[in-house]
Design brief:
Layout: H1 3-8, H2 12-15, H3 22-52, H4 67-72, H5 87-141, H6 143-154, H7 172-204, H8 206-220, H9 227-258, E1 265-268, H10 269-279, H11 281-286, E2 290-295, E3 299-302, H12 304-320, E4 327-335, E5 338-345, H13 378-388, E6 392-397, E7 403-410
Parallel strand pairs: 2-4
Antiparallel strand pairs: 1-3, 4-5, 5-7, 6-7
Helix pairs in contact: 3-5, 7-9, 8-9, 9-13, 10-12, 12-13
Length: 420
C-alpha cells in the first residue's frame, strides 16, 4: 500500500495535520530517510567502538583498589625483583593491575558517553541541514511542474500559443512538459479549426441565404404571382440550398483534415481515381473531354475518407476548370518508395504567381467559356489532406493553358503522423 493510499484511510482530523504540499512532503521524506540512515550508521559505529575499547574483563567486576597498599609501594614496580621473597612485590603488582583495569574501564565509559552525546548532536544538526537541503533540491526538481501548472492555469482559448519548451535531460519531467506542449498544439489546432469553420461558414452561407431570401421576397411582393414564377423561385431556392450543402460538406471535410488523421488503412490511389472518374462521367461526356488514364497500383497508408476526397477534388477541379472538347491526363503509380497521383488538364491560362492562392480557401476559379463556379474549397481541402499525411503537392501552369497537379505520398507514414 502506498503512502498516499494509507493517508486517505486516516481520519479527517488526522489528515488535516499532514503536510499538503509535495515540496513539504519531499523535504520531510528526505530528512526522515537521512535520520533513519544516520541512526543505523551510528549504531554500527557505536558497537564497533565499544568492542574495540574492551578492557578484557567483560562481565567481571573489578576488585576494589587498596589505596593504602599502593602508597606503601614506594619503589617503581619494574625495580623490584620478579622472584623476591618479599610478599609486597606480589601485592603491589596486583594493586597496580587492578588500578589499570579500573582506569581503562573509566576511560572506556567516558569515551562512549562522549561518542553517544556528540553523535546525537551531530545527527540532529545534519538532519536539520538535510531537511533544508531537501527543501532546496525539491524546489528545483519541482520547478518544471510549477511551470506546467502556471501554463495550464494561463491556458485558454486566447493563450494557447504559449509553450513550455523545457530544456534539459529527457527525464520524466521533460517528457511531461513535452506531452503538455503536444496537448496545447492539438488544442490550438482544434480551436483554430473551429474558429476558421465558424468564420468561413458564416461568410459563405450568407450568399445562398441571401439569394433564397431575395428570390422569395421578390416573388411574394407581387400582387399576384403565377405558377411559373413560383416554379422559378423554387428552382433558385433549390440551387441555393445545393450550394449551401456543398459548402457545409466541404467545410466539414476541411475541418476534419485540419485536425489530423483519425484512422489509418491501406488505400490504393488508382482505385480511388476510378471511383472519382465514375462520378464525373456525365460531365466529361457533356463537355466532350478527352480522358487519358494510366492507373497503376499506388497503395499508401492513410485515412481512406480523406484520401478519396482528395483524389475526387483534384479530378473535379480538372473537369470544372476545363474547356469544351478539352483533355485530361491522369496517371498513378509508385516511384522510389513513394506513391504519386499526377493529373494534367487543359483550360484557361493560370499565371504562375496565382498558383499558390489556388490552395487557399474560397479562391474560386471561373471557367470563362462556361461561366461555372466551384465552392472554392476543393484545392484547399487537397492541401489540408496532403499536410495531414505528411505528403507533398505541386502545381504548375501550362504555357498553352491549363494546370498540372502532382501529389506524392510516402507508402507508409510514420505512426505519430505529421508534425502539425
Amino acid at each position: 500500500m502506498r503512502v498516499d493510499q494509507l493517508a486517505t484511510r486516516l481520519p479527517a482530523s488526522v489528515r488535516k495535520w499532514l503536510p499538503q504540499k509535495v515540496r513539504t512532503r519531499l523535504t520531510l521524506l528526505y530528512a526522515a530517510l537521512f535520520l533513519a540512515g544516520g541512526v543505523v550508521l551510528l549504531g554500527l559505529t557505536f558497537g564497533l567502538v565499544a568492542h574495540s575499547l574492551s578492557t578484557g574483563q567483560s562481565g567481571v567486576k573489578p576488585a576494589p583498589i587498596d589505596v593504602k597498599l599502593l602508597k606503601e609501594c614506594k619503589a617503581p614496580l619494574h625495580a623490584l625483583p620478579d622472584k623476591s621473597p618479599n610478599p609486597l612485590v606480589a601485592q603491589c603488582k596486583k594493586a597496580f593491575n587492578a588500578g589499570f583495569v579500573d582506569a581503562a574501564a573509566a576511560q572506556r565509559t567516558q569515551t562512549l558517553d562522549y561518542l553517544h552525546l556528540y553523535s546525537l548532536i551531530g545527527l540532529g544538526v545534519l538532519t536539520l541541514a538535510s531537511g533544508g537541503l531537501g527543501w532546496v533540491v525539491s524546489g528545483r526538481v519541482l520547478r518544471p511542474v510549477i511551470a506546467i501548472t502556471d501554463a495550464a492555469r494561463r491556458a485558454s482559448e486566447q493563450h494557447l500559443g504559449e509553450r513550455l519548451a523545457l530544456a534539459g535531460p529527457r527525464d520524466e519531467l521533460k517528457e511531461l512538459a513535452d506531452t503538455f506542449d503536444a496537448m496545447l498544439d492539438r488544442l490550438d489546432v482544434a480551436f483554430s479549426t473551429q474558429r476558421s469553420f465558424v468564420a468561413n461558414a458564416s461568410h459563405e452561407l450568407r450568399t445562398p441565404l441571401t439569394v433564397m431570401r431575395t428570390a422569395m421576397d421578390v416573388t411574394l411582393a407581387k400582387p399576384s404571382y403565377t405558377h411559373e414564377q413560383i416554379t422559378l423561385m423554387a428552382a433558385k431556392v433549390r440551387r441555393s440550398i445545393d450550394q449551401a450543402e456543398d459548402t457545409i460538406d466541404a467545410l466539414l471535410v476541411l475541418a476534419t483534415s485540419d485536425q489530423g488523421l483519425t484512422g489509418r488503412e491501406y488505400v490504393d490511389l488508382s482505385t480511388a481515381a476510378e471511383d472519382a472518374l465514375e462520378n464525373v462521367a456525365n460531365s466529361v461526356s457533356e463537355h466532350h473531354l478527352d480522358f487519358e488514364v494510366d492507373l497503376l497500383q499506388a497503395e499508401v497508408m492513410g485515412d481512406r475518407v480523406l484520401l478519396e476526397r482528395m483524389v475526387a477534388n483534384v479530378i473535379d477541379n480538372a473537369v470544372l476548370h476545363n474547356v469544351d472538347r478539352g483533355w485530361i491526363r491522369l496517371r498513378t503509380g509508385t516511384h522510389n518508395g513513394r506513391a504519386y497521383f499526377d493529373i494534367t488538364n487543359s483550360g484557361p491560362f493560370v499565371p504562375e504567381e496565382r498558383i499558390p492562392s489556388l490552395f487557399e480557401p474560397f479562391q474560386r476559379g471561373e471557367d470563362r467559356a462556361r461561366g461555372r463556379k466551384g465552392v472554392g474549397l476543393g484545392l484547399s481541402i487537397v492541401r489540408s489532406v496532403v499536410a495531414a499525411h505528411n505528403a507533398s503537392v505541386e502545381a504548375s501552369s501550362l504555357p498553352e493553358g491549363g494546370l498540372r497537379v502532382r501529389i506524392e505520398l510516402s507508402q507508409r507514414i510514420e505512426e505519430e503522423g505529421p508534425d502539425r
